[in-house]
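Subject: Sanity check before I submit

Could someone independently write out the structure tokens for this chain? I want to compare against mine line by line before I put it in a report. The sequence has 124 residues.
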Amino acid sequence: QVQLVESGGGSVPADGSLRLACRASELMYRRYCMAWFRQAPGKERERIASIDRLGRTYFADSVKGRFAVSQPIAERTLYLQMNSLKPEDSAMYYCAADPAPSSCTGDVAAYKFWGQGAQVTVSS
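---
Independent answer below. Compare away.
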């Protein structure tokens, strides 16, 4: 059973930056699809970034150019660097892992392992 623990959430003013970390209980590099989802109150959980087993990345249009994802080889940690934050980025952020060998999907049900979430609040 893989365990994922997020950290790094918090409150920042608009245009600020935060870096979220997702620490895994085992080595995930190139073994799982790793993704970041977020969910705002009253909205569905959405994938905003992911990195697949070949290192290919995906970013939702809403965060493209502002967010970056990284997964250092020597670490069991997935990072989400968030720059130029906007109030609409406020949400609970979750990391997730999909053990399937194919490329990453945006389907929440495909992800077998989830972290507990980290709250991000951006004030205007």
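---
OP: Matches mine. For the report I'm noting this point. The longest strand covers residues 91-98.
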